[in-house]
Every structure is written in structure tokens, then in C-alpha cells.
Design a protein that fits this description.
CATH class of the domain at 96-187 and 313-335: Alpha Beta
CATH superfamily of the domain at 96-187 and 313-335: 4-hydroxy-3-methylbut-2-enyl diphosphate reductase, catalytic domain
Strand order of the largest sheet: 11-10-12-1-13-15
Oligomer: single chain
Distance between the termini: 136 Å
CATH architecture of the domain at 96-187 and 313-335: 3-Layer(aba) Sandwich
Shape: elongated
Largest sheet: 6 strands, mixed
Strand content: 25-35%
Length: about 725
């Protein structure tokens, strides 16, 4: 049986670009697609392994990023995702994005928008959202006649539709609309695949079409090949070939939809090569047409800028009667746009041919990759390219004991297995996923040990002296290496996933010793280096209070780098106990006061982020004013008096009284409310000089003046004449 592969099979540019974007997003963290990224189950399953999870509803995504699939989404869905705080990653095919802009423009100009396409297809659903409310989806002339047609009509086409369907709709609309604006938005890659499939079907006995059941462009290829009167087999992967009958067929064509990956096509070819061994030995060579699938996929490297030019250069199919006639009657190639470069070999080069091996050659003990074709409670069937599927027993499906194989792997998964027996009791190969996983885990461990790499593992048990982690095999982490900080109870780590360095590995003794602390120390040192290189004095940063001590607090300003917040820089008021201002775990804004890169020390200030009460102190406390304050502290040289929070002045011992004072506490005590006179103000130095004796003198003068200003109603008394003399004599 001769297998002839049609031209332009496999990934188009838009699908290839979307897969690359999704893989990059999945490598960074949690990533989700609203619906499948592309309509191919194998691609979706492979992306799921890399962390790109398909969901059916936006509410299923709590955090991470939402990837817009290649078919696009309505704008309100994208806006809602952003409102929920999700990162939106656009993997929409640039060609589909061009159509979205077209329909939005038509709607804004008052045109009734007609979309030639399949109702319910994700691309069409997205276009409806961009087209506003005045939109209809049609596919035939009867669909056009079944509803209203306004005078101004704009027409676009689903990228995977046929030119014939587009022409039929245009012909029907041309009879009813007064003004018709139409754009041929059928993807050029789709047109090429359809033309190639049509030519292929005319030259073979039957056609195998590879692609997902939900793929519209694959369905179109099936319809085209059937229209040529050929037997058509629609398969999603090599597993679907088992139930097909190719007897009596000498030439079988093979083509694939735009969302079918190259590796699936190759697997189908390999599987077909063993279906009729006698005929294959008879005929020998398989033909593959001018463009090899792999070269075509790898060569499609059109850039975003090129795609933008494609969209801008796409031709308007009809803005006059003559142009409508050109679409309805002319060559459809005149209105197409290029989506991907056409690949041609050197001039005169013969079509490439290749021999497809009859069967893979394995020996017992080899680790090979296969596709899961069936999952049963007690076993899993895996296609590894031999005549019959291999069997993975339940006890060989996982390192951990499982009650059933269901839920461990799924049909379509690509898994590595070790060939234990090429022919078991039932004649089928006996395989082990468990042993393959262990072998791969050992390879990863030794690679990390030799190249100073990082491994990840879940903490599964706490044992004497440390913890057990699952790194694809059993690993041990000593208690002293579990964390950079001492952990009193290692039970808190159960279920946690640790990133570690490999300290020792011995395959024969099945011994692996790892360290999370070593990696954390290296990362902390690197983080400190980055922080000290980038941190500048005067900037304000956020931090978390880690420890409070008598002289201040240590604050984590990021990446585990700590700075000291001294008690004197916590508040403008006098602070005796740092715990009165901050507590462990507090998140605060602080200012970087100094960075000592040589000694790796950082000084921080909290009060410097708050308004400085000394800024306008001369206005509030001018020299000569009598003000009231509270004695806060007694020292040998005087007493400190708080005038307001953050403002303290000093009453020097010489300013406490008119007489000589040996100790300040002879005159005042902490907590006393006293009146003092402002005798000096130095805002820059945060100092105010106060005088208690001058304030009292002023008070005596005020009282005397008040007394002397009273009217003399009783005349002069003996006290007035002799009072001072008696007082002085008593003293």
C-alpha cells in the first residue's frame, strides 16, 4: 500500500504561534486557556503536561494568566478576565485578529455584519462579540433569505470556510443589499490545504484525514475529499487506525488539518506502515510530495510584523458592483492574502521520497515513548509502534500503590515506558511506566549533581534526623538542610514542595541526599548582591518586621535582605521601647538612610516617612513665648520638657530657678506640668532652649502688674508699708 502525503499538511502559522506562546506562558507559572487552545486533543493534552490547563468557564481561574486561544474570544470576556486581576496572554491567530478588527470597523460604520461560518464555532462566537449586536451568521443562500437584510451590509468569512460557500452568500446578498462591503477573510493556509486535498483525492483510492473532531478546517478537508467520490477515513491519531480496513487499496492519500501537530502525522504514517506488511514489502517506497511535513512546519517563521502587513494588505472584496462581480465570478486567488511563506525547493528538484520503517526495533530494557490507547482499572494499553499495543500492569503504572489505573493516565497521553518483555504470555509487549520514571529520575538526579542543578520534590514523610522527599524516587533531606532557618517541628513541611540541591547520589545503594538550605543560601546571597547593587539611599521601600530588639527592629525589605530600624529613627517622639511602635509581622514603609555595601548593612528610618513637626517650629514657638509642657526626663544638666508629640526642649539646670540648683529634681520631677519661656530655637538641630525661672519671673511681673492696675479703694495698709520688711527679716 502506497501512502502519499498531501502538501501543506499539519500546523499552520497561527496554530504554531499559539502553541509557542502557550508553552512560554506555562513555563512561567499557572496558565489556563478558556476552552482548548486549538482544536486538537493531542496538542491540548501535551500542553496540559507543561502546565497549560483548559477550563470551560472563567470562574474556574482564580489566579495566574488566561491565554486567549488561537480562535479568539469576545472582548467582554477578555475585559472580565482583566477585571478579575488575571494576566491576559494573547495567542489569537493574527489572521483572526485582523477579522475581529474588520467586523468592529464595519459595526462602527453602521453596516449590518454577516459572518459566513459555522454557528457555535469558537472563532465565530468571538467575531460576534467584536461585531456588536447587529450581526448574522449564515452559510448558504437559504440562510440569507431566512432573515432580514439591511441596506448596508458588510461580509466577512470564517477563516476555515470554502470559497464556494463565501461566493454563494455574496450572490444572495448582492440581490438584496443596496451597499455591499465584503472581505474575503478565508485563511490562505486553509485555501492551500483545501486545494491540495482536492488534488490528492483525485489521485488515490482513499484518503486518511488527520485532525480533531472539533476542528472546522479538518471537517472541511473531509467534505472536500468526499465530494471527489473517494472513501475518507477521519482519524484523530494512530489509535483510530486499528478499526479501519485498508484491504484492496493500493494508493492511500494522507492529509491533516491546520491544528494537527507534525508528530501525530508521523505516528499515523508509522502506524499505517504496519497494517499491510505484505503489500509494503511488495511496493517498497512511500512517496512524500514536494514539501516534507517537518521542513514545512519548521520553516513557517512569519513574524508579527509580517502578519500585521498581511492584515493591512487584505483586499476588500466588494465596495462596488464590479468588485462584487469579481468575487462571484473571478479567480478566488486574486482576493487571497498570504499567511505563511510558500515553501519551494531548488529549481528542478525532484519530489522528496522517504522509506518508512516497517516496525520499530526495540530490545528488552529500552525506554521508549508511546501513546496511551486504552485505560482499564488493571492495565493500560500503550502504542509504541509495534504490531500490537504493549501492556502496563497496574503495579507498574506508578511508583506509588494505586487501586486503579484510571485517573493516572488518559487516552492520548504520551508516556515513557520501559520494555520488560517484547512478548508476554498473551503475545503482547509487557511495559513498565514505573521503572521508566525511576530511570528518568536517576538521570535527572545525576545531571543535577554534575551540573549544580535544582530538583523539586514533595515532602512525604518525617523520619529520624530529617525528612523524605519524592523526587521521582526516594530522597532524604537532613533536618539541618531542610531550611535556612531552624525548624523546630518538621511536620509543618509535610505536603510542601521543596527546591533542592543534590549533595550525594548512589544508584547501587539507592541513596539520594539533598539540601534545601544550600539552595536557599545561594539564592539569598544572590538576592543580597542584587539588592545592594540596586538599593540607593533616600528611597522609600516596603518591608516586614522580622525581629524586635531593645535597640530597634530588623526589617525584611525583600529577598530575605534585612536592614536595621534603630529606635531613634522610629518616631519623632522619644521612644524607650521599640515594641511601643512596631511588632513582628508588621508591614511598614521605611526610608533607606544608609547603605554600607562593604559590611552589607542597611540603616532604615520610619519617622523620616512621616511629617517632621520641626518644619515650622519657629512659627508655633517663637522666642519669648511662654508655653506649657510636661517634664519627660531628668538629667544631670537639666530637664527635658515635651511641648507636643515630637517636640521637646531642654531647660538647662541654670534656667530652673533664680537660686543655685545642685540637682534638677530639687525643682521639677518627671510628669510635672510647667510653664516655660522659649529662649532659643534651632530647627535644623531639632533643639529648643527653655527657661523655667524666666517664665516664673514673667508670671510674677504679670501678677504684680495685674495687682498694681487695681483701683485703690481701701487706701494704704500697714501690710503695704511693712510687709516686705517683715518678710525679709524672716528670711
Amino acid at each position: 500500500m502506497q501512502v502519499i502525503v498531501g502538501e501543506h499538511s499539519g500546523f499552520c502559522y497561527g496554530v504554531k504561534r499559539a502553541v509557542e506562546i502557550a508553552e512560554a506562558a506555562g513555563a512561567k507559572g499557572r496558565a489556563f486557556t478558556l476552552g482548548p487552545l486549538v482544536h486538537n486533543p493531542q496538542v491540548v493534552a501535551k500542553l496540559k503536561e507543561t502546565g497549560v490547563i483548559p477550563v470551560s468557564d472563567l470562574h474556574e481561574i482564580s489566579d495566574g494568566c488566561m491565554i486567549v486561544p488561537s480562535h479568539g474570544l469576545p472582548p467582554d470576556v477578555i475585559d472580565e478576565a482583566r477585571t478579575r486581576g488575571l494576566e491576559v496572554v494573547h495567542a489569537t491567530c493574527p489572521y483572526v485578529r485582523c477579522i475581529q478588527e474588520r467586523v468592529a470597523e464595519l459595526d462602527s460604520k453602521g453596516y449590518q455584519v454577516f459572518i459566513v461560518g459555522d454557528k457555535g464555532h469558537t472563532e465565530v462566537v468571538g467575531l460576534i462579540g467584536w461585531a456588536g449586536g447587529n450581526v448574522r451568521v449564515v452559510k448558504t443562500a437559504e440562510d440569507v433569505a431566512s432573515g432580514s437584510v439591511e441596506p448596508k451590509v458588510g461580509v466577512v468569512c470564517q477563516t476555515t470556510q470554502t470559497v464556494e460557500a463565501f461566493r454563494r452568500v455574496l450572490a444572495a446578498l448582492a440581490l438584496r443589499a443596496k451597499e455591499l462591503m465584503a472581505y474575503n477573510t478565508i485563511c490562505d493556509a486553509t485555501c492551500k490545504r483545501q486545494d491540495a486535498a482536492r488534488k490528492l483525492a483525485r489521485s488515490v483510492d482513499a484518503v486518511v484525514v488527520i485532525g480533531g473532531r472539533a476542528s472546522a478546517n479538518t471537517r472541511r478537508l473531509v467534505e472536500i475529499c468526499k465530494a471527489e467520490g473517494r472513501k475518507v477515513y477521519w482519524v484523530e491519531g494512530p489509535g483510530d487506525l486499528n478499526a479501519l480496513d485498508f484491504s484492496g487499496l493500493e494508493r492511500v492519500g494522507l492529509t491533516a488539518g491546520a491544528s494537527t501537530p507534525n508528530w501525530v502525522i508521523e505516528e499515523v504514517i508509522e502506524r499505517m506502515s504496519v497494517l499491510d506488511e505484505e503489500k509494503i514489502n511488495e511496493l517498497g517506497v512511500r512517496e512524500i510530495t514536494e514539501d516534507k511535513i517537518k521542513d514545512e512546519v519548521e520553516a513557517v517563521q512569519a513574524s508579527e510584523d509580517e502578519m500585521q502587513e498581511i492584515c493591512e494588505d487584505s483586499k476588500e472584496c466588494a465596495d462596488s458592483e464590479g468588485e462584487v462581480r469579481e468575487i462571484l465570478q473571478g479567480d478566488p486567488e486574486s482576493s487571497r492574502v498570504e499567511e505563511e511563506p510558500h515553501l519551494t525547493g531548488p529549481e528542478g528538484e525532484e519530489p522528496l521520497t522517504m522509506d518508512i520503517p516497517l516496525e520499530q526495533t526495540f530490545v528488552e530494557g529500552d525506554i521508549v515513548q508511546g501513546t496511551v490507547v486504552a485505560v482499564e482499572p488493571e492495565r493500560v494499553l500503550v502504542d509504541i509502534g509495534l504490531k500490537s499495543e504493549g501492556v502496563v500492569p497496574r503495579n507498574e503504572i506508578s511508583r506509588r500503590q494505586v487501586q486503579s489505573c484510571e485517573g493516572i493516565v488518559s487516552v492520548g497521553d504520551r508516556i515513557d515506558v520501559l520494555v520488560e518483555k517484547l512478548e508476554g504470555d498473551g503475545g503482547e509487549p509487557v511495559l513498565s511506566k514505573r521503572k521508566a520514571d525511576i530511570a528518568k529520575a536517576w538521570d535527572a538526579i545525576f545531571d543535577a549533581l554534575e551540573n549544580d542543578g535544582i530538583v523539586e520534590g514533595e515532602v512525604t514523610d518525617v523520619v529520624k534526623g530529617g525528612i523524605v522527599v519524592d523526587v521521582g524516587l526516594r530522597g532524604f533531606v537532613p533536618a539541618s538542610h531542610a531550611s535556612i532557618r531552624p525548624i523546630q517541628d518538621l511536620q509543618v513541611l509535610l505536603g510542601e514542595t521543596l527546591r533542592m540541591k543534590v549533595l550525594e547520589a548512589d544508584r547501587e545503594k539507592k541513596n539520594v541526599v539533598l539540601s534545601a538550605r544550600q539552595l536557599q543560601e545561594e539564592e539569598l546571597a544572590e538576592a543580597r548582591k542584587r539588592v545592594f547593587e540596586s538599593l540607593n539611599e533616600g528611597v522609600i521601600v516596603e518591608g516586614i518586621v522580622r525581629r524586635v530588639v531593645n535597640f530597634g527592629a530588623f526589617v525584611d525589605i525583600g529577598d530575605g535582605v534585612e536592614g536595621l530600624l534603630h529606635v531613634s529613627d522610629m518616631a519623632w517622639t522619644r521612644t524607650e521601647d521599640p515594641r511601643d511602635v512596631v511588632s513582628e509581622g508588621d508591614r511598614i514603609r521605611i526610608k533607606v538612610l544608609a547603605v554600607d555595601r562593604e559590611r552589607e548593612r542597611i540603616s532604615l528610618g520610619l519617622k523620616q516617612t512621616l511629617p517632621d513637626p520641626w518644619d515650622d517650629v519657629t512659627t508655633r514657638y517663637p522666642v519669648g513665648d511662654i508655653v506649657k509642657g510636661t517634664v519627660t526626663k531628668i538629667v544631670d544638666f537639666g530637664a527635658f520638657v515635651q511641648l507636643e508629640p515630637g517636640i521637646e526642649g531642654l531647660v538647662h539646670i541654670s534656667q530652673l530657678a533664680d537660686r543655685r540648683v545642685e540637682k534638677p529634681d530639687e525643682v521639677v520631677s518627671p510628669g510635672d506640668e510647667i510653664a516655660v519661656k522659649v529662649i532659643s530655637v534651632r530647627p535644623r538641630d531639632h533643639r529648643i532652649g527653655l527657661s523655667l525661672k524666666e517664665a516664673r519671673s514673667e508670671e510674677e511681673k504679670r501678677v504684680y502688674k495685674k495687682y498694681s492696675d487695681k483701683p485703690d479703694s481701701q487706701g494704704i495698709t500697714i501690710g503695704d508699708v511693712f510687709g516686705d520688711i517683715l518678710k525679709n527679716s524672716q528670711e
